[in-house]
Structures are given as structure tokens and as C-alpha cells.
Amino acid sequence: DVEHNLYHDTEKDAAIMITDDDDGLRVEGILGDTLRIRPSSVMERNAEGHVAHELFEIPLRHPGGDDAVFDETRHASTSWGRPIKPLSERSDSGFLLKVSPEVHVVIDRAHDKHFKLRSKLMEYLAIFMAAVNLKYRTMMYVDLQLIVTKVTVFHNISEPFITRSDHHPTVMLGETLWNFSTYVGRTEKDFKSDDMVVLLTGMDIGYVNTTTNKSYGLGIAGLTNLGGACGLWTRGALVEDVPKTFSGVVTFAHECGHLLGIAHDGSPPQTYLKGNIGAKECPASQRYIMSPSMGITSISKFSYCSAQQLYIFVGDPSRDCLRNSPSRHSARVSLQRWNKTLVSPVELCKLEYPDRSILGYVEELAGATPALGMATCHVVCETTKDTRPAYLIINAPDGMPCDKTDSNKVCINKECVEFPTNITTLTKKPRDPKKSD
User: Where are the annotated coiled coils located (predicted)?
Assistant: First the structure.
């Protein structure tokens, strides 16, 4: 049965199903982030009658890898001021750094078209940004809240900064980051006062080989410029989001982290970014938000190293744009309001896996150690593969109920906890850019 045949290793991110029947011993499952094993469909049995197997890789959906594009022409003078102290020392003596980066969110047509009413889109974005800021609450040293100062929606007009492929029209080519950053720098009247500008897209970020016309790199979920905040030509970022699923929340926090000078966990010091100390002390394998990849074992918190880098970056005198004190979001968010923006677990599965036949979802995947299910803030989607039961795992979005015995307990940063009473979000109204833009 499923429980006895499923082997799961959380440290190695491995989960395999072993079956022994009349056809022989078969192994199928996950071996780490991108490696998979399955019975071969083309190779025959060997002389002993054993079933041949094959290893294959799948693209990893992540905000990492090459998502931080380096601008080595930027060398700001630096004076790092007071040394960093542990949070326990600084919180008592008032050293906790408060910073409120101003973010302009641009929404493309591919994302906007999934919302029939503009009010629905704006309510989704309000909860989306509240969830992003919940991630920053996990950070040591810094009291940070992203402040959405403007929302621009491209509804029925062209998006001059998006680069597409004729052969893959749903793919947003990585070159779009350069085009978007240039568009932001040149369109002064719309973006002059923005610390960061993020394009939230419903397209799939990736690349296309101009010789073979084959797409690749579709696992990339975001792109940006490391340390690009405040820079006229470097403050842009691209973030994928499957509309209505909140799948882009962690990516949004990750990419804004890059803009604010945070390199990937496990990275050496970024020498072109003056003062950057890197994140060697925080291995990527710990799976915090600034890890180069994310999966079902990821932790929705920032590492100690991320906090250190951000504290240093904000302390750079050249980052004047981060020194003002804009009004923070004050619109309170109740659990009831949050729930209205969430889709059901089954609908979430269908939106995340549109090419799979979703039969439903299960509260807990039996046999997994530790258990995977709503109690651990994982949505287990039920489907089939070769007529056999199969399961697809999604990290549950913030606000999704996780305890059948307590309606106030929901997933927050991938933990099943009481819904916080102090969540706030934006009240801004969107604007439509004119055709002359």
C-alpha cells in the first residue's frame, strides 16, 4: 500500500515510491530539487529480468540561480557607521533600524486579465503585499515594511518593455529586465520618486534559443539587479505570479531583497557591491527565503546573513532614497477579509497545474516523514500518473486554514498559527498608463 511503499527523506528532499509486482521492482520519485527517477519507457529489461530505470531532470521553479543581475559599473562611496549588534542588545537600546522602501508595482495584461473587476485585482494585491511584508517581519536587525506608493495596471495598451518570442508568446524573455529598467529610468514623470519598481507578471519568465527556437530556463520565477534600489537604471525587478494563487509572494520578497543588497544565502562577498559581506555563514541548503531555489522544504523566513547584508546596505550614505520616512500602510486586514481572496485548495491545485487532471486534494499525505499536509502548510494535490494515484505538493499560501479544530489557525510563513491581529496593507488606487507612455 502507499504508506509502506513510500520512502521520504526530508534532509535530501527525496521521496520515492517502490513497487514490486509481476512486472518486477519499480522505483519512481524525487531525488532532490531537480532530479527524478522512473522506469524507462524505451529501454528493455536486462538479462536478469530487472526493469531499466532512467534519471531525468526537471526545471526548478525558483527566484534564484541567475536572478540577481550584477551591475559592476556602480561603485558608491561607503561609510558603514556603527557596528552591528545582536537584536537583543539593539532592541533594548533603540538600535533597531527602521526602513520603509517605496515600491511602485506594475501589473501586466497577462496578470490583469484574470480579474474581471479592477476592485478584485486591487484587493488581491493588497493581500499579496501584506503577505510579502509578513516575510520581512521575520528579519533580525531591521524593522522593514515595503510601502506601495503607486500601482500601474497595463490593461488594454501595449507594454513596450516586454520582450517576447514569436515561437513562445507566453514566455517573457529575460531581456525584459533590461528593457523594463530602461523604461523606468526614462519615464521620469511616473517613476521619479520610486525606490524600487516591480513588474508583477502572469507570463512565464524564461529564454528561447534563437537557433533551435526551444525555450529554456522556465523555472526562473524572478529577475532583478543586486543592490539596484535607488538607482535610476537599476531599480527594476520582474516577478512571476500565477494569478489568484499568491505563488509570487516569496519571489517578490526575494527579488526586493536583492534590490536591497542581499545576495543569495551561501554566496561569497559581492566585491562590486561595496561593503557586502556575503552569506557564507548561511548555507543555501538551509532553504531560507534568499536561497537560490525554493521547494516544499523551503522556510518562509529570512536568514541571519540576509539581515546583516540589509543592515549594511541601508547604512550606506549613498542610499539616500531609503532614508526618508514615508507613511506606513495602516489599513487593517482581518481574517475574514483575507479569506475572501483565497481560492479553495482544489482550485489552487488546478491553477498551479493547469496541464494536469486534478482529482482533489488530501489533508495529509500518509507515509511521508514528517507528514505533508495542511497541518504543515502544504497543499497535497491528488492526480494520476499512468492510471495510478499521484500527488503534487504546493506550499500553502498565507491565510489558508490549517487546523480543522481551530478556525483562527492559518498558515503564516509556512507555520500553522493564530492569525495575527496587526496586519496592515495598502489603500492606493491603481492608475492606467496613457497610450503616450
Answer: none
